[in-house]
Amino acid sequence: MTYEEARTLIEQTLPEKRFIHTLGVVETAERLALKYGENVEQARLAAMLHDYAKYIDREEMRRVVVDEPLDPLLLEFDDELLHAPVGAVLLDRAYDLDAAVVSAIKNHTTGEPGMSRLDQIIFVADAIEPNRNYPGVERLRETADASLEEAVVATLRQTIHHLLNKSVRIFPLTIETYNYFVNTP
Ligand SMILES: [Fe+2]
Ligand SMILES: [Fe+2]
Q1: Ligand nearest to the CA of 109
Q2: Closest by Cα among 81, 156, 82 to 115
Q3: Which among 56, 70, 160, 174 could disulfide-bond with 65, CB atoms 3.0 to 4.6 Å apart, if both were Cys?
Q4: pLDDT lower than 70: segments of the chain
């Protein structure tokens, strides 16, 4: 699948606000890939596709989790967690995509222990793209310019803080990813 094909698909699939967010992730992922010496084409493609499943009906997403099968624990947590792994599965089924791109889409919400540099770039770019506006985002952008791994940890820290403040459950993979990266030199 080419970048242009992906762009056409996503522009037709996502509402305008989410498409604008996606363009921000593309721009940021491209910049980070250049900075950290990763494959720019894969970064642009994964960024363009990362939220593909964001607006798919939740029952359909839960069916994909059961049919594939994906981690059944996903069904016990917030539905917001589904769009990343489900999007990766649906796109992988329908299009010819590099495994590295599919992985970056799959891991963009929770991360994964040991995830690749490309995965890290999409994970961080999603949190810091120019349209994001929340307390601490400027600091996160500075961290991303200094160290990709530190930006992964800082992004996870802020996600976990946010979930703690909302008094909601935290998906174990989010904690496992934090534990993996927090003391990795
Ligand atoms: Fe997402
Ligand atoms: Fe996103």
Answers
A1: 1
A2: 156
A3: 70
A4: 184-185
Q: How many CB atoms lie within 10 A of CB 11?
A: 13
The answer to whether 46 and 105 have CB atoms below 8 angstroms apart is: yes
Do the Cβ atoms of 50 and 104 come closer than 8 Å? yes
Calculate how far, in angstroms, residue 75's C-alpha sits from the geometric centre of ligand 1: 17
Q: Report pLDDT for 184.
A: 57
Q: What is the CATH number of the domain that holds 172?
A: 1.10.3210.10
| pLDDT at position 183 | 79
DSSP state of 10: H
Ligand index nearest the alpha carbon of residue 54: 1
Domain tally, the chain: 1
Question: What is the per-residue pLDDT for 85?
Answer: 98
